[in-house]
Amino acid sequence: MSPDDAGEGLLKLVYVLRYVATLTAPPLLVLTISMILSGYALTAPQTMSKFFGIGYGEGVVVHSAPLIRFGFVALALLHGWAGTLMLILPRLIRAGRVMLAYVVLTVLSFAALYLLTPLLLVELSR
To answer: Contact at 8 Å (CB) between 45 and 61?
Structure first.
């Protein structure tokens, strides 16, 4: 496999990463807004119920729901991983550093898998 073929394979991966980042953005935005609004409902329930109809009780339910917390953490990790690789890999490929691009891909993937997985496990155990 020539370096040009390897670079083309990595560029195809960049398109997949762009698709992953695009696919995770809308639900991540919805979850972020719901977490922010429910957090404000915990600190200022009168104001939130007046403007948004969210009281303290609804804020507690939304803010402490395991599915929402897990989804938020999982989507944030996936979106951040895909976005970071999507920004780094094309620059390395254009600079002719295909092997370094593979190293960066491997290191960031293992970092996301082994260092950030405990965050997901903590959210599942609550």
So the answer is: no
Q: Is the pTM here over 0.85, yes or no? A: no
What are the tokens at 53?
């109809």
Gap between the Cα atoms of 71 and 66, Å rounded = 8
The span from the CA of 36 to the CA of 54, in Å, is 12
Token code pair at residue 64 = 């402490």
Residues in the chain predicted with pLDDT less than 70, given as ranges, are: 1-7, 115-116, 119-120, 123-124, 126
Residues 6+ apart with CB under 8 A from 90: 11, 14
Any idea what DSSP says for residue 113?
I
Contact 108, 85 (CB under 8 A): yes
19, 31, 49, 53 from 60: Cα distances, Å: 34, 15, 13, 14
Encoded tokens for 118 = 């405990």
Put residue 82 in one of left, alpha, beta given phi > 0 → left and psi -120 to 50 → alpha. Answer: alpha
